[in-house]
Amino acid sequence: MTKVNYLATGTAVIAILSATPAIAQEADAEIQLASVADTDSVIVVTANRVEENLQDVSGVVQAFSGDQLRRDGVQEIRQLQTTVPGLNIANQEGNIEIFIRGVGSANNTELGDPGAAPHLNGIYIPRPRGLGLMFYDVERVEVNKGPQGTLYGRNALAGTLNIITARPDLDDISGYAQIEYGNRDSYAAEGAINIPVSDTFALRAAGTYINRDYDYQNTGDPSLDPAGLEENYAGRLSLLWEPTDRLSIFIMGDYGRETGTGYPGTNIINALTNTGRRAETFDQRQVAYRGPQGDLENELWGIQGQISYQFDGFSLQYLGSFRSVDFEQTNAQSIGLDYPGRDRSGDDFDDFSTQYWVTRSESQVHELRLVADQDQRFRWTLGGFFFDENQEVGFLSLADKGFCCFSGTEFTMPDVDGTSYAVYADGTFDVTDRLRIFGGIRYTEEEKARFGIGGNLALVLGGEGFGCCFATRFGTEGFVPALLDRPNFIVPDGMSQQAIAQFLIEATGVPGARDTIIPQIGSIADGTNPNGNCFVRDDIDNGFITCPTDPAFNGGFSFVNLTVPGQQRGSSNFDFLDWRAGFEFDITEDSMIYAKVSTGHKSGGFNDSFDPALIPELFSPEDVIVYEIGTRNTFDLFGRRATANLTGFYYDYNDQVFQDLTVINVDPVTGNANGFSLVNRNVGGSRIYGLEAETSFSFTGNFRLTFNALYLDTEITEGVVADVRSQNFGAGGVTSLIDLSGNDLPLASDFSFTIKLDQHFPAFGGTLDWQALYSHRSSYFLTQFNEDPVAFVDINQNVVNVQSAQEAGFPDRQEAFGTLNLGIGWTSGDDRFRIEAYASNLFDQQASNKALVGSGINVRFLNDAQRYGVRLITRF
Q1: Exposed e or buried b for every residue in 19-29, given b needs 16+ CB within 10 A?
Q2: Are 753 and 710 in contact (CB under 8 A)?
Q3: Phi-psi label, residue 49: left if phi above 0, alpha if psi -120 to 50, beta otherwise
Q4: Helix, strand, or coil here: 255?
Q5: Tell me: the pLDDT tens digits for 599-611?
């Protein structure tokens, strides 16, 4: 399924080239239209927080205009990775996870933060849920590779991704409208209008609507819609006021809403263990859905402002924003991957086990900067930064039909606060006309605190003769979890059985139509019967438990043991220093060499609180120092401008966080472990080195070739953790320890490249253009375990069995793959009308962008499936 179809790829590109009219070969004049990329134009970026020519930046920054991304088939944020070597973007349950050159973070809940910092118009976004909803009316997108701790600050450990929206224009009334129709029954509309109200004031309004059908297929309960349905809409209003040559005020407000069936992954472990085949041999979008309907609702809005006043020799700049995220998702659930030969006789679609997520975030960012004019010999920046975020988060995982002892897990935090302060200074000094030195420093303090509950929800209900145990139904049709609407988040020590029962029931907001938890333990909660009500029904009758007949139990159970989550509290205070230093030397006016050292940090965070002797309350910030040397060159080739850049780098990655599985409870009688928690620990370190090349060439006939490539070598240098793949429930669930040293970092291909061919030429009274973008990634591992063997141990850590990763169901190597995007369009001579056809991931290559592994779990999150369609655009 995922083998790269090189023959088909080459045939498609050759067919396009062959179809180019002869007139294109005769036309040497460069055609410049607003809708056609100018191959000789200067690309302006803000990688150093000031506008400058891309070729003048000492580092690797890849920038793409909104028009270019649309033509290249990049319509949502996950697809951006097809244009940038070394970029990996996954969507786990609506949470966007960005990795650059193997560095990033999957811990984006209230416990942690992203490792690659997302920005909107240069202003930090703390929670990247819904980030893709901002992908409209875009001026450009910049991906800044390597740590940016000095200039961009918090969580820019891996780099930054900056979405820059189109701004109001003081000159003319203008705008555009576009409609689109494509496969998967998708249709969309987008538009913007720019209105100069006066010579000094203008506004711009933009909006988008997308309706796209599923990229997964349901082979299970036919009443359920599979994952992948999207219906999204968003709008923004921007204002620009420039009353004098010195003062500029920009204000933007935006609103967006995502709905659909959500973005859960697919648990493929049964398919792997039952067939012995690897993941790439299956169609991983063929899923047997069961139970609850997957559902996503995400409401986002924000306002941001930028004020600049130009003094003599420097400017004073203020940037500020307020952002709100309100995310809810009920995960679509499945029996598993529906592979050929699967035994369907035991399928149980009446199983409502699932996970519920709620994330609410309100954040504000304020930054004040003094920036020297860029025509001075010493160009400096002084700044202060303030960030504050208040979160409310909830997670509930329910095991419907919980047979004996377990019904769910809940972590709900009604109060999570984070604050960050920073001051920084940066400067560049012209030693000579050709030699420049630069450096900067940033000091950051962070405070975090949280309060809530976390742990298991469990019922152990005894039958006749103290037999164990009765099943419980929890989360059936119509169920709504309470989560943040719980009436109480205080879990005092020494709670009575009645209080525990009430607290357990309060996990329910609206009971499901066939839930049994309230009929079974409601009488304990209200005090009418401490033994509960022995409630039995056919769908929870396990065949060997009967209700006690002893009148002493008063129609209740022979014993009741209830468990509720424990209290979760935490606070932290971190500070760290980031810096950079380097030089640039102009060999010629168009050729530069540079070398620099830069650092970055990712914020520390919390662990779930149980026994502080076993689990540290906090994990510390991660940090990286990167050494980089490179050259950037612009030159004439065959009478046309070309670029060729080469960069080498070395990363020293320290205090790296890996997840560990820790025993939090031991049965005093058997000595077996019976309680566990995933723990984030600073137990690792890694080194990364590589070489990155960027080239662009223009040829006769308005033909252009762009080639970007990345070679990457990553190695975990230290890190011993519990192997979550190896839980041995025959020995109480104990795991073995595994040394990760020598393994590759996950999501890091050794070699990746993009190659793009595009051309434009006069045709039919206008301009015809086409482009072909091919993206290739060599194989990479999805987890830090790198398909190491799985060792199962007893309670004394003696090895009792060893299986290969394939045998245990945990192969985690994503094989090499390539994707091809094609586009063709025609623009009228007056640039007012355009029609284009596109195909993204033309051959529907399937690849995993992320995996979650654990006992009985190998969940894959995939790249975007094939898309194709047509688009009409009118400009005015």
Answers
A1: ebeeebeebee
A2: yes
A3: left
A4: strand
A5: 999 988 887 766 6
